[in-house]
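Input chain follows. Return structure tokens only.
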Amino acid sequence: MGQGFALMERRVDRQIQAFIDLIERKYVTEPGRAPKPMEMGHRTQYLVLDMITDVTFGEPFGFLARDEDVHRFVEINESLLPIMGILGTMPWLVRLLHSWPLKGAIPGDGDNVGFGTLMKYFFSSASFSSSLLVPPPP
């Protein structure tokens, strides 16, 4: 059990280092130059999402490497928050959404944007079943 935690810690450390590298590469202002602003809210979401996917699947989703909202995941989730708040208080509505023909409107692993891309990543991850047992590359 202790080895599993050490592995997760290394993966988290790897993503923290990727976050620091991103800041140093793109957002550190050089003396005598105009400031380079960084929108911190989305960058910290990228960090957390890459940490979660690295720990879970053995590799990050790629937000930090690309410094962008991969497959519009963050954008779509932010737009769905009000809807999720309503659905959380009305479980009968969730059951209705999972029935035909409305089922086609909810995310699925065939989607190319949003939460469906994470589902596709999950279902196609060859390393998922053993990702917590295989050490990451140094």
